[in-house]
Design goal:
This protein has about 210 residues and is an alpha/beta fold. Helix 2 packs across helix 6 and helix 3 packs across helix 6. The protein has one domain: Purple Acid Phosphatase, chain A, domain 2. It has eight helices and ten strands. The strands form two sheets. The chain has a five-stranded mixed beta sheet. A five-stranded mixed beta sheet has the order 4-5-6-8-7, with no helix packed on it. The longest helix is centred in the middle third of the chain and has 14 residues, at about 100-110. The protein is about 35% helix and about 15% strand.
């Protein structure tokens, strides 16, 4: 059975909990940006890590995880705590100012997360299709975490994955889901959840958006 694709959660665990209730037997592809902005990044990240460890979810890098992990992982513990406190205050607060626990969860995320995933006809990446070089693991840039629709789309890498027909992304908030399988073959499903209270997922089994609740 095909996966359910989950866009940016940004510290809002009730949306991930709803996905679990709505699709209890389905594998999830979580598009990244689990953390920051919302009320409980710890709950979101730890639930996602649990699901991934159980083989029930695939986690993808988002720009927020990349930024926090990339900046903090190079620091010694005291400096790391200062960085969390100054630059990731809401995330740090959700961990009750426990820098060690936050650092451990970020390391686990980094050990599990992928830049993109292909499942049958579908490619999933946080922001945009990856730009690939000589092989599926040869990422030429970080656009898969940062690009916006206005940047233009890389082509689907069908020379590596000939069954691909479309791709699914979060990152760029849209007023309503963008589903364009017959045009550019791209789906955008980030509804700006923290700000709008609206949320949806992509059901790859039916190739359709499912709205919360």
């Amino acid at each position: 059975m095909a996966s359910v694709v989950v866009p940016d959660l940004h510290g809002c665990p009730h949306f991930l909990e709803w996905v679990q209730r709505r699709f209890p037997e389905r594998h999830l592809i979580v598009l990244g940006d689990l953390i920051n902005r919302g009320p409980d990044s710890r709950r979101v990240l730890q639930l996602a890590l649990y699901l991934a460890a159980e083989g029930r979810a695939t986690l993808l890098w988002g720009n927020h995880e990349d930024w926090v992990y990339g900046q903090s992982s190079r620091l010694k513990p005291a400096a790391q705590e200062r960085w969390f406190r100054h630059h990731a205050h809401d995330l740090f607060k959700s961990y009750h100012s426990d820098a060690r626990a936050l650092s451990a969860d970020l390391r686990q995320f980094a050990s599990l997360a992928e830049p993109y995933v292909v499942e049958g006809a579908m490619l999933c990446a946080h922001a945009a299709r990856p730009s690939l070089g000589t092989g599926p693991d040869d990422l030429l840039d970080m656009g898969y975490m940062w690009d916006r629709p206005a940047s233009g789309l890389h082509p689907l890498p069908m020379h590596f994955f000939p069954d691909l027909r479309y791709s699914v992304h979060g990152h760029t908030p849209v007023k309503r889901p963008v589903v364009d399988l017959d045009g550019e073959g791209v789906v955008y499903i980030d509804l700006g959840t923290v700000r709008t209270g609206r949320f949806c997922v992509w059901d790859a089994e039916t190739e359709a958006v499912v709205m919360y609740p």
